[in-house]
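My current task is to audit a protein record that another person submitted. My question to you is simply how this chain folds and whether the C-alpha coordinates agree. This is what I was given:
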Amino acid sequence: MEKTIVKTGKTVEEAKAAALEELGVSEDQATIEVINESEGGFLGMGKQAEVKVTANVEEASEEEEVVYYGDDENFEGDAVSEAEDAAVQFVAEVLSGIGIHGNMDSYREDDTIYISVSGGDCGSAIGRHGETLEAITYMTNLIANKHSEDRVHVHLDVGGYRKHRERIIEGLAERAANKAVRYGKPVAMEPMNPAERRMVHSYLQSFDGVSTHSEGDESNRRVIVTPDSAAQE
Protein backbone atom coordinates (compact mmCIF):
# COMPACT_ATOMS: atom_id res chain seq x y z
CA MET A 1 0.00 0.00 0.00
CA GLU A 2 1.02 3.62 -0.22
CA LYS A 3 1.80 5.39 3.02
CA THR A 4 1.70 9.14 3.07
CA ILE A 5 3.00 11.35 5.83
CA VAL A 6 2.97 15.13 6.23
CA LYS A 7 5.89 16.66 8.13
CA THR A 8 7.01 20.15 9.05
CA GLY A 9 10.47 21.54 9.73
CA LYS A 10 12.55 24.68 9.70
CA THR A 11 13.51 23.92 6.09
CA VAL A 12 12.14 21.71 3.32
CA GLU A 13 15.18 19.43 3.64
CA GLU A 14 14.66 19.04 7.39
CA ALA A 15 10.97 18.20 6.98
CA LYS A 16 11.76 15.79 4.13
CA ALA A 17 14.47 14.03 6.12
CA ALA A 18 12.16 13.61 9.11
CA ALA A 19 9.42 12.12 6.92
CA LEU A 20 11.77 9.70 5.16
CA GLU A 21 13.22 8.56 8.48
CA GLU A 22 9.78 7.97 9.97
CA LEU A 23 8.61 6.03 6.91
CA GLY A 24 11.86 4.05 6.82
CA VAL A 25 12.51 4.59 3.11
CA SER A 26 15.11 6.32 0.99
CA GLU A 27 14.39 9.34 -1.20
CA ASP A 28 14.31 7.23 -4.39
CA GLN A 29 11.58 5.05 -2.85
CA ALA A 30 9.27 7.98 -2.19
CA THR A 31 7.30 10.72 -3.91
CA ILE A 32 7.90 14.11 -2.30
CA GLU A 33 5.57 17.10 -2.57
CA VAL A 34 6.40 20.47 -1.01
CA ILE A 35 3.22 21.91 0.52
CA ASN A 36 4.78 25.06 2.03
CA GLU A 37 8.22 26.62 1.80
CA SER A 38 9.74 27.79 5.08
CA GLU A 39 8.72 31.39 4.46
CA GLY A 40 5.11 30.41 3.74
CA GLY A 41 2.27 29.32 5.96
CA PHE A 42 -1.46 29.63 6.39
CA LEU A 43 -2.45 33.27 5.89
CA GLY A 44 1.21 34.20 6.25
CA MET A 45 1.35 33.13 9.89
CA GLY A 46 3.39 29.93 9.54
CA LYS A 47 7.18 29.96 9.20
CA GLN A 48 7.95 26.25 8.95
CA ALA A 49 8.30 24.26 5.76
CA GLU A 50 5.78 21.47 5.15
CA VAL A 51 6.14 18.44 2.88
CA LYS A 52 4.05 15.40 1.97
CA VAL A 53 6.02 12.22 1.38
CA THR A 54 4.51 9.03 -0.06
CA ALA A 55 6.30 5.68 0.22
CA ASN A 56 5.30 2.64 -1.84
CA VAL A 57 5.08 -0.70 -0.04
CA GLU A 58 4.75 -3.41 -2.69
CA GLU A 59 3.33 -6.20 -0.56
CA ALA A 60 0.20 -4.30 0.47
CA SER A 61 -2.90 -4.07 -1.69
CA GLU A 62 -4.35 -0.86 -3.05
CA GLU A 63 -7.53 -1.33 -1.02
CA GLU A 64 -5.50 -1.10 2.22
CA GLU A 65 -4.12 2.36 1.46
CA VAL A 66 -3.65 4.47 4.57
CA VAL A 67 -2.86 8.15 5.05
CA TYR A 68 -1.43 9.32 8.34
CA TYR A 69 0.39 12.29 9.85
CA GLY A 70 2.75 11.05 12.51
CA ASP A 71 3.11 7.47 13.67
CA ASP A 72 0.68 6.98 16.55
CA GLU A 73 -1.84 4.68 14.82
CA ASN A 74 -2.54 3.30 11.35
CA PHE A 75 -6.25 3.14 10.61
CA GLU A 76 -7.32 0.78 7.84
CA GLY A 77 -10.40 1.74 5.88
CA ASP A 78 -11.37 2.57 2.32
CA ALA A 79 -8.66 3.50 -0.17
CA VAL A 80 -7.50 7.10 0.14
CA SER A 81 -9.62 9.36 -2.04
CA GLU A 82 -9.01 12.81 -3.46
CA ALA A 83 -11.51 14.18 -0.92
CA GLU A 84 -9.63 12.67 2.03
CA ASP A 85 -6.29 13.86 0.70
CA ALA A 86 -7.61 17.41 0.28
CA ALA A 87 -9.19 17.38 3.75
CA VAL A 88 -5.98 16.17 5.41
CA GLN A 89 -3.87 18.78 3.62
CA PHE A 90 -6.28 21.57 4.57
CA VAL A 91 -6.33 20.59 8.26
CA ALA A 92 -2.53 20.27 8.31
CA GLU A 93 -2.18 23.74 6.78
CA VAL A 94 -4.63 25.32 9.23
CA LEU A 95 -2.97 23.72 12.25
CA SER A 96 0.49 24.69 11.03
CA GLY A 97 -0.72 28.26 10.61
CA ILE A 98 -1.81 28.49 14.26
CA GLY A 99 1.34 26.85 15.55
CA ILE A 100 0.20 23.27 16.12
CA HIS A 101 2.57 20.59 14.83
CA GLY A 102 1.26 17.32 16.23
CA ASN A 103 0.41 13.94 14.75
CA MET A 104 -2.57 13.51 12.46
CA ASP A 105 -4.18 10.18 11.53
CA SER A 106 -6.90 9.80 8.93
CA TYR A 107 -9.01 7.06 7.41
CA ARG A 108 -12.23 6.78 5.48
CA GLU A 109 -15.16 4.44 5.97
CA ASP A 110 -18.04 4.66 3.49
CA ASP A 111 -19.00 8.35 3.23
CA THR A 112 -17.20 9.52 6.40
CA ILE A 113 -13.62 10.80 6.61
CA TYR A 114 -12.18 10.52 10.11
CA ILE A 115 -9.29 12.83 11.02
CA SER A 116 -7.72 12.73 14.48
CA VAL A 117 -5.05 15.18 15.67
CA SER A 118 -2.92 14.60 18.76
CA GLY A 119 -0.15 16.64 20.32
CA GLY A 120 0.58 19.26 22.91
CA ASP A 121 -1.11 22.64 23.12
CA CYS A 122 -4.09 21.83 20.89
CA GLY A 123 -6.32 24.27 22.75
CA SER A 124 -6.11 26.99 20.10
CA ALA A 125 -7.61 24.59 17.55
CA ILE A 126 -10.50 23.72 19.89
CA GLY A 127 -11.58 27.12 21.23
CA ARG A 128 -14.23 27.97 23.78
CA HIS A 129 -16.83 25.18 23.94
CA GLY A 130 -15.27 23.69 20.80
CA GLU A 131 -16.26 26.65 18.61
CA THR A 132 -12.94 26.80 16.72
CA LEU A 133 -12.98 23.04 16.18
CA GLU A 134 -16.50 23.27 14.74
CA ALA A 135 -15.41 26.09 12.41
CA ILE A 136 -12.40 24.12 11.15
CA THR A 137 -14.59 21.03 10.71
CA TYR A 138 -17.13 23.03 8.72
CA MET A 139 -14.46 24.41 6.38
CA THR A 140 -12.86 20.98 6.01
CA ASN A 141 -16.23 19.53 4.99
CA LEU A 142 -16.50 22.20 2.28
CA ILE A 143 -13.01 21.39 1.00
CA ALA A 144 -13.61 17.64 1.01
CA ASN A 145 -16.90 17.91 -0.85
CA LYS A 146 -15.32 20.09 -3.53
CA HIS A 147 -13.15 17.07 -4.33
CA SER A 148 -15.87 14.42 -4.22
CA GLU A 149 -18.69 13.56 -6.61
CA ASP A 150 -20.65 11.97 -3.75
CA ARG A 151 -21.50 13.70 -0.49
CA VAL A 152 -18.93 13.03 2.24
CA HIS A 153 -18.81 13.94 5.92
CA VAL A 154 -15.64 14.89 7.82
CA HIS A 155 -15.37 13.88 11.47
CA LEU A 156 -12.48 15.91 12.94
CA ASP A 157 -11.20 15.46 16.49
CA VAL A 158 -8.37 17.49 18.01
CA GLY A 159 -6.65 16.48 21.22
CA GLY A 160 -9.40 13.97 21.96
CA TYR A 161 -11.82 16.83 22.68
CA ARG A 162 -14.69 15.56 20.55
CA LYS A 163 -14.49 12.02 21.91
CA HIS A 164 -14.41 13.35 25.48
CA ARG A 165 -17.27 15.76 24.77
CA GLU A 166 -19.35 12.95 23.23
CA ARG A 167 -19.07 10.95 26.46
CA ILE A 168 -20.17 14.00 28.47
CA ILE A 169 -23.10 14.70 26.13
CA GLU A 170 -24.27 11.08 26.30
CA GLY A 171 -24.14 11.20 30.10
CA LEU A 172 -26.15 14.44 30.18
CA ALA A 173 -28.68 13.02 27.71
CA GLU A 174 -29.17 9.86 29.73
CA ARG A 175 -29.66 11.80 32.98
CA ALA A 176 -32.17 14.10 31.30
CA ALA A 177 -34.09 11.12 29.90
CA ASN A 178 -34.17 9.37 33.27
CA LYS A 179 -35.38 12.55 34.94
CA ALA A 180 -38.10 13.06 32.31
CA VAL A 181 -39.38 9.51 32.79
CA ARG A 182 -39.18 9.68 36.58
CA TYR A 183 -41.12 12.94 36.93
CA GLY A 184 -43.28 12.64 33.81
CA LYS A 185 -42.34 16.15 32.65
CA PRO A 186 -40.22 17.55 29.78
CA VAL A 187 -36.61 18.34 30.68
CA ALA A 188 -34.70 21.15 28.97
CA MET A 189 -31.00 20.47 28.50
CA GLU A 190 -28.25 23.09 28.42
CA PRO A 191 -27.76 25.11 25.20
CA MET A 192 -25.65 23.22 22.65
CA ASN A 193 -24.29 23.70 19.18
CA PRO A 194 -25.89 21.81 16.25
CA ALA A 195 -23.40 18.93 16.34
CA GLU A 196 -23.98 18.33 20.05
CA ARG A 197 -27.75 18.50 19.66
CA ARG A 198 -27.51 15.87 16.94
CA MET A 199 -25.57 13.67 19.36
CA VAL A 200 -28.41 13.92 21.90
CA HIS A 201 -31.13 13.19 19.34
CA SER A 202 -29.18 10.21 18.01
CA TYR A 203 -28.27 8.81 21.42
CA LEU A 204 -31.81 9.02 22.82
CA GLN A 205 -33.42 7.40 19.76
CA SER A 206 -32.79 4.05 21.42
CA PHE A 207 -33.92 5.21 24.87
CA ASP A 208 -37.40 3.85 25.61
CA GLY A 209 -40.06 6.21 26.89
CA VAL A 210 -38.83 9.58 25.60
CA SER A 211 -38.72 11.71 22.47
CA THR A 212 -36.61 14.79 21.69
CA HIS A 213 -36.88 18.07 19.83
CA SER A 214 -35.02 21.40 19.85
CA GLU A 215 -36.27 24.82 20.92
CA GLY A 216 -34.88 28.34 21.11
CA ASP A 217 -32.78 30.73 19.07
CA GLU A 218 -29.53 29.40 17.65
CA SER A 219 -27.32 30.95 20.36
CA ASN A 220 -29.58 29.56 23.06
CA ARG A 221 -31.01 26.51 21.28
CA ARG A 222 -31.38 23.40 23.41
CA VAL A 223 -32.79 19.89 23.30
CA ILE A 224 -36.07 19.19 25.11
CA VAL A 225 -36.46 15.62 26.33
CA THR A 226 -40.15 14.74 26.62
CA PRO A 227 -41.51 11.56 28.28
CA ASP A 228 -44.00 9.62 26.16
CA SER A 229 -46.58 9.93 28.96
CA ALA A 230 -46.49 13.74 28.74
CA ALA A 231 -46.71 13.67 24.95
CA GLN A 232 -49.90 11.59 25.15
CA GLU A 233 -51.66 13.99 27.55
User: Anything to note?
Assistant: The domain at 2-159 is CATH 3.30.300.20 (GMP Synthetase; Chain A, domain 3). Residues 118 and 160 are 7 Å apart (CA to CA). Confidence is low (pLDDT under 50) at residues 40-46, 57-77. The chain has two domains: 2-159, 163-232.
